[in-house]
Amino acid sequence: MKKADVVEFYARLAADNPHPETELEAGNPFQLVVAVALSAQATDIGVNKATRRLFEQVKTPAQMVALGEDGLKEHIKTIGLFNTKAKNVIALSQRLIDVYGGEVPADRDALETLPGVGRKTANVVMNVAFGAETFAVDTHIFRVGNRTGLARGKTPLAVELKLDKATPQPFRLHAHHWLILHGRYVCKARTPECWRCVVRDLCAYKPKTTAPKRGAAEAT
User: Fold this and answer.
1) Is the pLDDT reported for residue 212 higher than 90?
2) Would you please indicate which residues are annotated as catalytic (active-site) residues?
3) Most exposed residue of 25, 70, 117, 167, measured as fewest CB within 10 angstroms of its CB?
4) Count H helices, E strands: the chain?
């Protein structure tokens, strides 16, 4: 995608959604780390349902450790892979206490040393909690980057690095949220809804999909 088209691409997404935010609910950086870690192979809606009562009780790593693995499982048992995730959340909470004085470090490399926290999770935390211009490549961004031609790559890291290189100011801070939301609600995995896409003429995907017939739409 040409530089001028990249600018126009982001400008249109920004005009359509001037203040994008994560859909995960969290009251502080620690809760955000937990929520993002729990969201792997799960929906944000499902994570929010599971964590609302949890986060009323647990606001710090010490409180999470005190709750314990079994107590945590009771809150998150509706989330996929909850046994492994509970183990990781307790372990990352203990590490935050032991190594970082109970505070979430504002450093991606440090975040990646926490159990259950990979590069994507670290990038989300750096962006949302600390205002860093990071690109958290999940399945949505990976798909949108490749499908549109904005940032093609065979791995999430390759797409991330291309996005980092291609994305100009003033779009860098919110870029990954625009792309995630676009992939989640418009540029969907099975069938992209090109007929209502604000960047369809800039996108490399072919053939563009057309709006379903009224009868078919009402039947679904």
Assistant:
1) no
2) 120, 138
3) 70
4) 11, 0
